[in-house]
Amino acid sequence: MNGMLGVVNRILLAVTGLVLLAAGAAVLTASRPLAGRHAPLLTEAARRRSWHAEGWGWWSVLAGLVAGVLLALWWLLSQLRRSRLRAVVVDTGDGAFAMLRGPALEEAVTAEAGALDGVARCRVALRGRRGSPSLRVVLELEPHAVPADVLAALAGPVLAHARTSTGLAGLPAEARLKVTSHRAQRVA
After folding, report:
1. 99: which of 87, 88, 103, 117 fits an S-S bond (Cβ 3.0–4.6 Å)?
2. Can you give the pTM of this predicted structure?
């Protein structure tokens, strides 16, 4: 969903830019707005003719504005929506299902991954759907850490424990590794 939202954001930004560019070019090339501060954009006769005209023109303008407002509200709500998963469906084995809170699973994985050798800090976000969740793990490594060892420990026992706890056959995870910045030590 985030990929699609990024594409929609780019398209909206490009369309807005083109509309503003066209409006700017129209204002710069028009002679009436540059005729003076007191010259009106619409003459009195044009205003009377437009406001009192009968027909479908005003209804189409109104429908376009309503559609634009609804699309803008949809876009705003999609920006504000949280992408984290609130709960995971866990099979209890007796034909029933239980709900595991997403933040509880995030905290458990964060605690286990943060305890690995060479990890300074860890952040975990649970994403996806209730039946098919995925993890996004950001590990900040200490300068002496070996990234391959930390990644193997994360992919091995930490994620295996998370899969066992949730009862899921597969729990895909995306790991991002960063190295902490440190000051150089002075030798006296």
Report:
1. 87
2. 0.56
